[in-house]
Amino acid sequence: EEAPPPWEDADIPSEDSVPWGKYGAGDMAEYEPEPEVPPEPAGVRPAAPSPQSSDSGWWEKVLSACRGSVEDTSFQFLSDHMNLSPDLNGSVLTLRAKNDFVLMMVNTPGVKSAVSQAASNILGRSVTVAAVTGLPDTGLKEDKLDRLAKFGNIKFQ
């Protein structure tokens, strides 16, 4: 009689028994989703943005300042407006991710620390970074071919 293949006899470890858990190694081992930001109570108005936060270029300046201190994959999500939207309200910078995967890529201590430090330096005040799932609805949809054309290595004729 032939012995069964080795994978049929193997004990499969559970997610809790492996050292990296269900998120894998590295920064993802530290990933813990933050609770959703509760909606603001009726009648409460958010703080008015400061002059620096109303400047449309502040986020690009923050990205430029933290470029070398954030992993390339996480930086790609930070700089992609279709996957992430920064929302500055007072001293809290909320990174609004399109989905849980994008949230997992930007909601790490290293990314949040680098963004917080860069934003604090750019805006001239202490800034705390939070990350949540859910992009604001802008009503604008970007064509997928337009996104490809932005890379510059693809030409459409």
What brief labels describe this structure?
single chain, 157 residues, alpha+beta, three-stranded mixed sheet, 33% helix
Helical content (DSSP H or I, runs of 4+):
25-40%
How much β-strand is present in the residues?
Answer: 5-15%
Radius of gyration: 21 Å
Treating each run of at least 4 consecutive H or I residues as one helix, how many helices?
7
What is the 3D form?
extended
Q: Say what oligomer this is.
A: single chain
Strand order of the biggest β-sheet: 1-2-3
Order of helices and strands: HHHHEEHHEH
Number of DSSP-assigned strands: 3
Give a short account of the largest sheet: 3 strands, mixed
Low-confidence stretches: 43-54
Mean of residue pLDDT? 76
By secondary-structure content and strand pairing, the structural class works out as: alpha+beta
